[in-house]
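Appendix B. One record, verbatim.
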Amino acid sequence: MNLLLLAAQVESSTQPEGIATTFGVDWPHLLAQVASFCIVCFILYRFAYRPVLKMLEVRRQQIAHGLANAEQIKAELARTEAQRRESDGTGRMSRQTN
């Protein structure tokens, strides 16, 4: 007898509706939870995620600007060092001739 009930239950649960009821899916509540989740995702994206992305982009631009300044300073330092060596060389030459 129990075997017949089990076989009938297995046959009814092979359909998607039967499987959903077997696992206790309540469609109105599931749809309400999906809608709530979508609303929360939208609010978080709008008021949390976008400002964070904006702040990261500003920071990325500041870093790029700082690196560009560092390269300019390096080039200026190299040019100044070359001028100093050149002037030291000409100064030594004039001292050696005197």
